[in-house]
User: Fold this.
Amino acid sequence: MKNTFFFLLFISAIVALFAFAFSFSQSDEVDGQQIFTDSKCIKCHSVESLEITSKKDDALDLSNVGADSDAEFLKKYLVKEETMNDKKHKTKFKGSEEELNTLVDWLLTLKTEEVETEG
Ligand code: HEC
Assistant:
């Protein structure tokens, strides 16, 4: 009986470990999205094309932000070194340089103009 208990405990530990490892091994695309949600961007932004919805009623939808932006500009804009329509962004991105790169790469994939065929 005791052995069964420890065996089950052991199995649960293994499963937990795999789940943990798996959460770090996702593709770049998911990572960027993860940074986006973790950085609270969804407080003010939604990405309707990916069904990411903000609680804010007048949230700015970023579904097509990749269509007319470039990486260098967005990176500077998100750390308030660059302005858009004479205004700086509301918040300064607080993550690392690497996270900023991943985030911006992901933002640039957001295009609704080129409609992808649904599977
Ligand atoms: C406090 C609210 C707020 C938060 C939080 C916020 N933003 Fe914004 N963001 C805005 C507003 C407002 C604008 C529009 C500014 C303008 O039009 O002058 C904007 C504009 C943008 C744009 C440019 C959109 C365009 O029209 O090209 C991008 C990209 C963007 N935000 C990304 C982000 C990312 C990524 C995060 C998270 C790291 C974030 N925002 C967090 C309020 C916010």
Notes: Residues 3 and 9 are 10 Å apart (CA to CA).
